[in-house]
């Protein structure tokens, strides 16, 4: 990536670097799936939290099915990565539940929307730009999910992120298949891929279990974890469509075994963690 594609901040967006005393860090990375698109990624003493959605209810009609449980270190991340501004990915009450001043990384055009809601430590990125969070490099990559979709947000687009430090972890946010995935898949250790949504149907700009498995053939990660499924459903939906909370992640694992047998798929429940050791 060219120097023009690097976003730099005077403070490095790092609270980890301000912690006292030297630390010894285990090699690799640990990811903890907290439900929907919320994942804590921890490596080299730094923790970032993706698209925090940390409530029992959303929009009045979506209810969280697995309990949230204790957040542990994810309750005080070094930065938050926002993929786009849809309600289930940028949830203002969830952001306000984190320590004041937590740095936020978001797509270009998000700063004004966030500042109006009291969040002022915001770094905007476009696809191809990067910055450092503590010892981690965070690079914004394309996503195929459209723009807008929220009053007051304007035409803000969607991003994925590659978090690099100890391991290379791709967080797709919300996306459909797109050709540039092949370039994203350079030396990936882990892909966090959305495999469904919160309702019985998917609109455009989303991956389902089959297309997410097809994405693995482009990305070529060592490991994959399905996200964005089975956490929030409309009230009454589990009685009408019981598969909403149980099927998508496991179907993805079956399709991946067929289409990308070289990828080790791990289906995590909310609160489960996966440690990624460095590639040999």
Give descriptors for this structure:
disordered N terminus; globular; alpha/beta; seven-stranded mixed beta sheet; Metallo-beta-lactamase, Chain A; 15% helix; 280 residues
Number of strands: 17
User: What percentage of the residues does DSSP assign to strands (E)?
Assistant: 25-35%
Number of domains: 1
CATH topology: Metallo-beta-lactamase, Chain A
In what order do the strands lie side by side in the largest sheet?
8-7-6-3-2-1-17
Globally, the shape reads globular
Structural class: alpha/beta
CATH domain class: Alpha Beta
Helices and strands, with pairings:
Layout: E1 29-35, E2 38-43, E3 46-50, E4 57-58, E5 62-64, E6 79-81, H1 92-96, E7 104-107, H2 111-115, E8 122-125, E9 130-133, E10 136-142, E11 159-164, E12 168-171, H3 181-184, E13 190-194, H4 209-219, E14 223-227, E15 232-234, H5 237-240, H6 248-259, E16 264-265, E17 273-276
Parallel strand pairs: 3-6, 6-7, 7-8, 12-13, 13-14, 14-16
Antiparallel strand pairs: 1-2, 1-17, 2-3, 4-5, 5-15, 9-10, 10-11, 11-12
Structural features, described:
This protein is α/β, with parallel strands linked by helices. The chain has one domain: 4-Layer Sandwich (Metallo-beta-lactamase, Chain A), CATH 3.60.15.10. The protein has helices spanning 92-96, 111-115, 181-184, 209-219, 237-240, 248-259, and strands spanning 29-35, 38-43, 46-50, 57-58, 62-64, 79-81, 104-107, 122-125, 130-133, 136-142, 159-164, 168-171, 190-194, 223-227, 232-234, 264-265, 273-276. The strands form three sheets. It has a seven-stranded mixed β-sheet. It has a seven-stranded mixed β-sheet with strand order 9-10-11-12-13-14-16. Helix 4 packs across helix 6 (248-259). The longest helix is centred in the last third of the chain and has 12 residues, at 248-259. The model is unreliable at 1-12 and 14-22 (pLDDT under 50).
């Amino acid at each position: 990536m060219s120097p023009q594609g690097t976003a730099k901040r005077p403070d490095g967006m790092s609270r980890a670097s301000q912690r006292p005393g030297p630390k010894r860090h285990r090699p690799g990375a640990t990811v903890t799936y907290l439900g929907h698109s919320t994942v804590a990624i921890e490596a080299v003493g730094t923790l970032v939290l993706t698209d925090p959605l940390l409530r029992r209810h959303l929009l009045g009609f979506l209810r969280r099915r697995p309990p949230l449980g204790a957040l542990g270190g994810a309750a005080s991340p070094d930065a938050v990565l926002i993929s786009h501004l849809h309600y289930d990915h940028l949830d203002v009450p969830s952001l306000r539940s984190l320590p004041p001043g937590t740095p936020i990384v978001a797509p270009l055009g998000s700063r004004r929307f966030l500042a109006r809601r009291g969040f002022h430590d915001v770094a905007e990125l476009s696809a191809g730009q990067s910055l450092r969070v503590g010892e981690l490099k965070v690079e914004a990559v394309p996503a195929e999910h459209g723009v807008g979709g929220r009053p007051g947000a304007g035409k803000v687009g969607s991003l994925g992120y590659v978090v690099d430090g100890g391991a290379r972890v791709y967080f797709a946010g919300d996306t459909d298949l797109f050709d540039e995935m092949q370039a994203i898949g350079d030396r990936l250790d882990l892909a966090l891929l959305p495999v469904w949504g919160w309702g019985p149907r998917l609109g455009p700009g989303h991956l389902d279990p089959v297309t997410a498995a097809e994405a693995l053939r482009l990305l070529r990660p060592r490991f994959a974890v399905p996200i964005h499924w089975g956490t929030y459903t409309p009230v009454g939906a589990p009685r009408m469509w019981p598969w909403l909370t149980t099927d998508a992640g496991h179907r993805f694992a079956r399709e991946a075994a067929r289409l990308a047998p070289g990828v080790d798929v791990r289906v995590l429940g909310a609160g489960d963690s996966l440690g990624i050791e460095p590639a040999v």
